[in-house]
Specification:
Elements lengths: L6 E5 L20 E2 L2 E2 H11 L4 E6 L4 H6 L4 H9 L3 H12 L2 E6 L6 H6 L2 H4 L4 E4 L3 E4 L4 H12 L2 E7 L9 E7 L5 E8 L10 E9 L3 H7 L10 H10 L3 E5 L3 E4 L3 H13 L2 H16 L1
Parallel strand pairs: 1-4, 1-6, 4-5, 8-12
Antiparallel strand pairs: 2-3, 6-11, 7-13, 8-11, 9-10, 9-11, 10-12
The structure holds uridine 5'-triphosphate.
């Protein structure tokens, strides 16, 4: 990437089957981390990294995501009447954080297919992708860390995190040549390798910076692992061309689309809130003794 990151795509059209029954009618991206929907934390990360435009990819049953980033005049008026000015300010700020457009993925045919739905909104620019259920709590916003490496190298970049050997089958897994700065020039990348076949233990986490020519690649992709159009298969093409770096980012990652990951994220974020910390710690101490 040559210019600083401006556009970010947030795919949020998946079915969230790991989180049924709540995801029957509520998008998993709207489930709260303490009191804030996961997707708002992700949009805030994009804004902190300097992104000016966010493209939300939503689907059937996901209109609450669009509503969340829209104005709610009735609520604003009620808060104003009750003189709850701080809450009013917070509510307004959500819709004013960033330029936001939403596009529809008509059917959840996979992450690659969701990114392709943003093609017209992205146009000819390099862009970031941030998965709508992947949280990374860090000093420097994670997507900013990935964008920085993409700017330095001129290559596409993905976030990488080491995982236990018995977890690699749950992720896209990358291997390649370690670089002096600790990052990886990726030469192989495989989606959900079956047990014992992973090329490394470096898992791809939901932050990417991609070139616009990823779109024609995705258009040609046939369904891969799980019958879905996989973003990983297009990344594999970039890797073969020597155009993909894996970035060992700083930060704590939570998979908020997974029940245990979601619970952990709530505890971690709540412990950082001064008004909740002591009460939660006291509760956890007694709860573990039961
Ligand atoms: P996941 O694989 O976690 O989403 O995709 P999923 O399919 O909804 O989850 P499970 O496995 O059924 O529980 C990561 C991100 O990509 C989006 C999801 O909304 C999530 O934020 N996604 C996935 C799409 O936008 N479209 C798709 O077709 C698939």
């Amino acid at each position: 990437m040559k210019q600083p990151l401006r556009k970010v795509v947030i795919p949020a059209a998946g079915l969230g089957t790991r989180f049924l029954p709540v995801t029957k009618a509520v998008p998993k991206e709207m489930l709260p981390i303490v009191d804030t929907p996961t997707i708002q934390l992700i949009v805030e990360e994009a804004v902190k990294a300097g992104a000016a435009q966010v493209v939300l990819v939503t689907g059937r049953g996901k209109s609450s995501i669009e509503d969340h980033f829209d104005r709610n005049f009735e609520l604003e008026e009620a808060l104003s009447r009750k003189n709850k000015m701080e809450l009013l300010e917070q509510t307004r700020r959500i819709g004013e954080m960033v330029g936001l457009v939403s596009v529809r993925q008509k059917e959840p045919l996979g992450l690659g297919h969701a990114v392709l739905a943003a093609k017209r909104a992205v146009g000819d620019d390099w862009f970031g992708v941030m998965l709508g259920d992947d949280l990374i709590d860090s000093e420097e916003p994670a997507i900013g860390q990935i964008a920085r490496v993409s700017m330095q190298t001129g290559k596409a970049a993905v976030a990488l995190m080491p995982v236990a050997d018995d977890q690699t089958h749950l992720y896209g897994v990358a291997a390649g040549k370690p670089q002096a700065d600790g990052n990886l020039l990726v030469d192989r990348i495989v989606e959900k390798p079956s047990r014992g076949t992973a090329p490394s233990n470096l898992a791809v986490i939901g932050r990417y910076v991609l070139p616009p020519d990823i779109f024609p690649m995705l258009e040609k992709m046939k369904p891969g692992a799980g019958g879905e159009i996989q973003l990983t298969d297009a990344l594999a093409v970039l890797a073969q061309q020597g155009r993909l770096v894996g970035v060992r980012f700083e930060g704590e990652r939570h998979d908020a689309g997974d029940r245990l990951g979601y619970l952990q994220a709530n505890v971690a974020y709540a412990l950082k809130r001064p008004e909740l910390r002591d009460g939660l710690l006291a509760y956890l101490r007694t709860a573990v003794q039961r």
